[in-house]
Amino acid sequence: MRIIISGGGTGGHVFPAIAIADAVKKISPDAELLFVGAEGKLEMEKVPAAGYQIEGLWISGFQRKLTLQNLLFPFKLIASSLKARQIVRRFRPDVAVGVGGYASGPVLNAAGAAGIPMVLQEQNGFPGVTNRILAKKAAKICVAYDGMDRFFPKEKIVLTGNPVRSEVFQNLEGKRNEGLDYFQLDKSKKTIFVFGGSGGARSLNEALAANTALLRERSDVQVLWQIGKFYADSYGQCDTARLPNVQARPFIDRMDLAYAAADLVIGRAGALSISEMCLVGKPAILVPSPNVTEDHQTKNALALVEKQAALMVKDVEAKERLLWTALEVLSNVELGKRLGENIKQLAKPNAAEAIAKEILKLVKA
Q1: 206, 310: one domain
Q2: Are residues 124 and 176 both part of a single domain?
Q3: What is the number of domains present in the chain?
Q4: 123 and 234 co-located in one domain
Q5: Partners of residue 118 on adjacent β-strands
Q6: Is the Cβ–Cβ distance between 311 and 284 less than 8 Å?
Q7: Do residue 139 and residue 175 come from a single domain?
Q8: What pLDDT is recorded for position 26?
Q9: Residue 74: how many CB atoms within 10 A of its CB?
Q10: What whole-number distance in Å separates Cα of residue 346 and Cα of residue 94?
Q11: 175 shares its domain with 124
């Protein structure tokens, strides 16, 4: 059988796509998989590193202001559509899978025109434009949140959750001391883990940098702080980063040990991060990024807040409220326990396998 997987642009699209491919190969080792992504984007590096073949399209998103990229957009779309048709005709897939992102539109349109069944995977509580357009032609739409029939035909929806590397998050309780030792943290202190993705998040960094005095006073609490590669020079040597109860790192290479060491997690509200937090099952504070399409991170966060599975602090309020909110959670044992238990109930550890099974059903249909 042949399966084509298309989409990407960000880790939130790329890593779920790879997890789906791994799950398909685990069930059907003989399956042939081909990825199609956008030239110059993350998938062109990460997919080959995961052992899969990928082809690139000359495609990018449409900017909201007049730019050279926008002037080129019609030409990119035509070129990508022609190449997508060639790829589909040559590879002859049994199923086409779209995970969202620039490249999935031309590829799945080409697959749909050729009569090839399509599966969409939507990571967010508010779907992207590409998946909303493609939904009419899709056979199945795998989602991570309840209530997605507001956007997609109800009969096509399968609630699978978002695929993540679940094996990384197994037995975290048993790794707690290992995590504390690895990051040189004190076993007698409560630990806050703050991360804003590999690149970092400016408002999270500002919130920590602006509260040096508060963290200095709270010697019973320690912070593991992923600054991010883009902000390492700006914040790596600030006063907060030099405190004895703060471990500041440009990048966290062992997320499993960071989660294991944490008593409370603070992060953005991207779909992948939230899925990981659900598997971890610890109290979480979400600070949605305002710099995303249609404010979808706020919608992701509110889906958890409504179920009392996380707290949310607005990006513009992070400097004043974030650390105070974190300290309040750590001091309120009942609140922390409730948040941890509720977020754990939302975990979908077998999401990748569930999506793979939906794909393989269409191959056999």
Answers
A1: yes
A2: no
A3: 2
A4: no
A5: 96
A6: yes
A7: no
A8: 95
A9: 10
A10: 32
A11: no
Q: How many Cα atoms occupy the beta-carbon half-sphere of 34 within 13 Å? A: 18
What is the domain range of residue 275?
167-345
**Sign of the alpha-carbon dihedral angle for 304, 305, 311, 313:** positive
pLDDT of 55 > 80? The answer is yes
What's residue 291's pLDDT?
A: 87
| Amino acid (one-letter) located at 297 | Q
Q: Are residues 320 and 188 in the same domain?
A: yes
Task: Give residue-wise pLDDT tens across range 151-208.
Answer: 999 999 999 999 987 666 777 888 999 999 999 999 999 999 999 977 789 999 999 9
Cβ neighbours, 10 Å, residue 94: 18
Q: Is there a contact between 114 and 86 (Cβ–Cβ < 8 Å)?
A: no
Cβ-based neighbours of 338, under 8 Å, separated by 6 or more: 308
Domain CATH for 217 = 3.40.50.2000
